[in-house]
Amino acid sequence: MSCLRRFWLHTPHSYERTAYLQALAAIDRDGLEHLYAESLWDCEETTRLLGIASAPMGPETLGRIAVLRDDPMETPEVRAAARARPAAPTGSG
């Protein structure tokens, strides 16, 4: 698994990051929170979509998802995925 993480960090081809992240998740989803959060800033739409779906709920990631949701230059698919992601965990009182 550490090889895949190195590939994620050092690939010269941005489009490969989506496949590396999917492979890492297929092997073991534990410990990928940072990579999912990082993927919210990726240049590849498919990688941002993975981040939107799987990044942990925290102030920074939720803020970034809101930016993606409201960015008129973002793709319609990313904006829709960001709109569909809950803004905050719901709790019962």
Describe the structure in your own words:
Helix 5 packs across helix 6. The chain has 93 residues and is an all-alpha fold. The protein contains six helices and no strands.
Main traits of this protein?
93 residues, mainly alpha, 6 helices, 0% strand, globular
Short description:
63% of the residues lie in helices and 0% in strands. The protein is an all-alpha fold.
Gyration radius, to the nearest Å?
14 Å
The span between the termini is 41 Å
Derived from helix and strand composition plus strand pairing, the structural class reads mainly alpha
Number of helices: 6
Order of helices and strands: HHHHHH
Mean pLDDT: 89
- Share of residues in helices: 55-70%
Detail the poorly predicted runs: none
Largest sheet: none
Which percent range describes the beta-strand content? under 5%
Query: Which geometry do the CA atoms define?
Result: globular
Annotation, overall tally of beta strands: 0
Summarize the helices and strands and which ones pair or pack.
Blueprint: H1 2-10, H2 16-27, H3 33-39, H4 45-54, H5 59-70, H6 76-84
Helix pairs in contact: 1-2, 3-4, 4-6, 5-6
